[in-house]
Amino acid sequence: MAGPLLEVQNLEKQFAVGGTWLARHRRIIRAVDGVSFALEPGETLGLVGESGCGKSTTGRLILRLIEPSGGHIRFEGRDLVTLSARELWAARQRMQIVFQDPFGSLNPRMRVGRIIAEPLQIYAQADAAGRRRRTAELLEVVGLNPGFAERYPHELSGGQRQRIGIAAALALQPSLIVADEPVSALDVSIQAQVLNLLMDLRRRFGLTYLFISHDLHVVLHMSDRVAVMYLGEIVEIGSRDTIHREAKHPYTQVLLSAVPVADPAARRERIAPPPTRPHRVRPTERRGGRRSSPDTPPTELGRPSVGEVAAPPPDTPHRVRPTERRGGRRSSPDTPPPS
Ligand SMILES: Nc1ncnc2c1ncn2[C@@H]1O[C@H](COP(=O)(O)OP(=O)(O)OP(=O)(O)O)[C@@H](O)[C@H]1O
Ligand SMILES: [Mg+2]
Description:
- The chain has one domain: P-loop containing nucleotide triphosphate hydrolases (Rossmann fold).
- Helices cover 29% and strands 21% of the residues.
- The protein has helices at residues 55-62, 85-91, 102-105, 112-122, 128-141, 158-170, 188-205, 216-222, 240-246, 250-257; strands at 6-17, 27-39, 44-48, 70-75, 78-79, 95-98, 176-180, 208-213, 225-230, 233-239, 286-287, 290-291.
- The strands form three sheets. It has a six-stranded mixed beta sheet, sandwiched between helices.
- The chain is globular and about 55 Å long.
- Bound molecules: adenosine-5'-triphosphate (ATP) and magnesium ion.
- Adenosine-5'-triphosphate binds next to strand 1, strand 2 and helix 1.
């Protein structure tokens, strides 16, 4: 396949919140507001930004776990937005997600062996003996012995559970993995092991990752390129080195200033993030073709191309929205849609 594995153009997602009874109280959150990027086969693109900036929504949109409000998602040369339910179901074999919370994403009533084999069964890729063989193989691939197949998720440590989530994501031999904060829920000592596992798997199976994290340190470690997201938009995108050394957007610089550096001489001055504000819903109106909100002036937050940044919004206060974690079982494909 020539060209990018994944190409996202002008992706948008708006959520209507509030106003259950009165439509005039309804507000629209522009969770993802015109996001574009491409991912080459075998590449890792890190998507970094503060809590609530739209990272997970972007990941879920790409897998079409939620419906986009606008834009295009081309995966392996096909526009996922226009696929029928059945075609999408088939395409999902090739794209999987690893969630942040391995406990919440694994079915507590299933043994590990069944969790890993379930996608194979749903997509009818192997008979019972074949599934058992493949499960043992996948357990070995993620560094666990085959005996783990008999255990339940609550009998495992956080790191082991995340390994199971990764094994299940690999079962159908995907080309793309969206890893949504895959180590954020783990102890620091375990994080490095799981990150190293993800890097090994990428090399071994030629995987392509969209690696989502709020931690730029981890993203720089994992990624070939980095996209910085802020309030639903990508404000800066470039190679890891460009972002590390020549970041231009003030928000990227705030993130960089918090990255720990071993050499004291090379340490950056820590830039304090502007005061945090409570969660706010942005209204739907746009002034001058751009998003606007009541107490911020319209700014020219244009979409950057690779290695460029949009003009910074000098007096836009930094808005931090509190985490609203939404659970979700593994994306392991649901039952096939009716033909
Ligand atoms: N189903 C939903 N209904 C309403 N609002 C939503 C929904 N899903 C996400 N949002 C809102 O969209 C915005 C982006 O959320 P998202 O989960 O994508 O952020 P995030 O960058 O992944 O944050 P975190 O780092 O905390 O995981 C937030 O304001 C969130 O409250
Ligand atoms: Mg998230």
